[in-house]
Structures are given as structure tokens and as C-alpha cells.
Hints:
The structure is a homodimer.
Chain A: H1 2-16, H2 19-46, H3 50-61, H4 69-76, H5 80-92, E1 96-100, E2 108-112, H6 114-136, H7 141-160
Antiparallel strand pairs in A: 1-2
Chain A binds a DNA duplex through helix 5.
Amino acid sequence: MIPESRQDDKAIARAANSRLVHDFGLLIKSATLLEQRIDSALRRECGISHTMMEVLIRLCRRPGEEVSQRHLADDLTLTSSGTTRLIDRMEESGLVRRVASPEDRRVALVEPTEDGRRVFLRAADIHAHVVERYFVEPLARDDYTRLTSALSEIHKALREDVT
Amino acid sequence: MIPESRQDDKAIARAANSRLVHDFGLLIKSATLLEQRIDSALRRECGISHTMMEVLIRLCRRPGEEVSQRHLADDLTLTSSGTTRLIDRMEESGLVRRVASPEDRRVALVEPTEDGRRVFLRAADIHAHVVERYFVEPLARDDYTRLTSALSEIHKALREDVT
DNA sequence: AGTCAATTGCTGAGTACTCAACTAAATTCT
DNA sequence: AGAATTTAGTTGAGTACTCAGCAATTGACT
């Protein structure tokens, strides 16, 4: 049995040291750290989480646009249940309000309150600062452009087959 | 007061539609989707989470190397408390075991069991498949190289100032 | 029109994390 | 050597998700 075990050892070490595994780990780790950095800055300075900021960004993009919870869930990679509770918390802190849709009585439209818009404006500043510092600054101009286009491709591939 | 409000409207729309905000969102979203994809594949095929897989990768890298929980926590971007419970679950499912360090009686070294190594070997296959499909395939060879080097830079910047 | 299927949002139960406070061991300072 | 500080890991309480299952509403098929 020892020779078979030695065979495995080789395969195991090879798999654990694979280039792909390392690179993928780097992506996940960088994204996690970056999100944590933004999240704690936003919590400290504006009292909102990074996820709440993503909601506000979505809601402020086109003023007057009707945005349902389902829509938000898709955009934020959340389940509908997670979204319900997220909007609950945001409504409770007065950042957004739910409005019944006139066309479809199932959907709850979400819109920012005046206060939500005010908080968003302050948060956008913090957000920009952190993104600038850790996402743009470390990269050469060209690399930044290529990074984002690479991410677009990856994102497209992920969206395309919803297996 | 209306003119002031209109002023804000402009600033709000500009902030919400900023290029940086969009690009950063893309990074976070791609990473999240990618991780979810891997996580569900691993759970379905091998009964382990993506986080557990990251632990196994770390433990199988250099066989015989002493890896403490602290070490794992740093590598996985987890708190020590999160790591304790993660290793609890992994120990319970027989994937790893805790061994007291002979040099420092505070530290708990973590090592993979035979079963853990077996599971890792199967999981590495799934892992490689998904990474290949959504991380490598969508990109031209050059773009892949540049993407990973850009990520390295970002990661370095994040590591450097631990503000 | 009447049933069947799909979709929206909500809720209970469970999971996987965080933070703060703790113990025990090791290290540093004097 | 002894006190003060730092570090490793654990625990309790809280947070923010997920999944499965629900009711209400809408749309599609005949």
C-alpha cells in the first residue's frame, strides 16, 4: 500500500501548488479584503454597511426609475429573502422606503428617502477614496483598463450559463 | 431650497454613475459569483464548503509543514474566532485533526487526516474545472497573466497598510 | 372562464461569520 | 526573578446571510 500512498502524495502536492488554485485564491482574497476595507470605512464614517451602499448606488443611478426588490436581489447577488431583510433594516434606519407598485400588486418598489440620498452623497466620497487608494493607485493606467475588461468577460461567462 | 436640491441631484447622479463605482462593483460581484459557483459545486460533489477547501489547499501545500490556526486565519482572511469554529466543524467531519505544538503550548497545529487528503484530491478536480471554465476560458492568455499580476498589486497594497 | 404554473416577497430555522471578553502560555522590561 | 504586555485559541452574544416553504398575485394554456 505504500507505493499507492506515495503516488497520492505527488498528486496531492501538485494539486495544492497549482498555479490556477493560487491565482483564484488571490482573486477571492483581494476582493474580500477590499470589501472589508470599504465596509469598515463606511460603517465608521456613515453608519452603513457596504451592502447598503450598493443598494443606494443602485437606487440613485436613475432618479425616478422603479426598482423592485427582485431587481435589487439580482443586482446584489442576494436571495430574495436576504433582500427582504436588508430592506427591512434600511427602512428602519430611514434610508429607503417601500412603495407598492401600481402595476403589479406583488412587487414592492424601493426608493431612497431624502435622508438616504444625503447619506449616499457622503458615503460616495468615502467609497471613492478607498477604491482610488487600493484599486486604482496600485495599478498602471493600462493595467486598470485591462483588469476591468477581463472582469467583464468573467462576469459575462458567469451570467451566461446559470447552471 | 429647490435650487440647492437640484444641485444635489446632479452630484448624486454623478456619484451613482461613476466609472470607479461601476468597476469596483464588477470586481466584487464577479468574485462573489465565482465563489458561490465553486462553493455549490464542492458541496454537491464532495460535501465540503469552499472555505474548507481553502483550508485543505493550505494544509496539503507542503506535507509535514506545521500550520497553526493563526496562520490559517491570516491566509483565509478570517478572525481567530471564525477559524476556531471552522476547524471545529472540519475536525468533526474527520477532515483534519488538531495537534498540540511541541514548542509553544498555546498553539494548535492543524493537519489533514487521511480522509481529508482523499477528499482534497477529489475536490481539487472540481475546483480546477470551475476555475478553468469561468476564470481562464473567458480570457485571452495574455489577459489572464495581466489580470493576476494586477491582482497581485492590489493585494500587496491592501497588505501593506493595515490601517 | 378556470385551472395550472410561475413569480414576488415574507417568515422560521439553520449556518457561518464577527466582536468583545476571557484564559493560558510566552515574551519583554526592569 | 517578577510584573506587565503580547499572543493563541476559545466562548457568548449578535449579525447577515441561506434554504425551504408559504400566501398572494399574475400570466399562460386550453
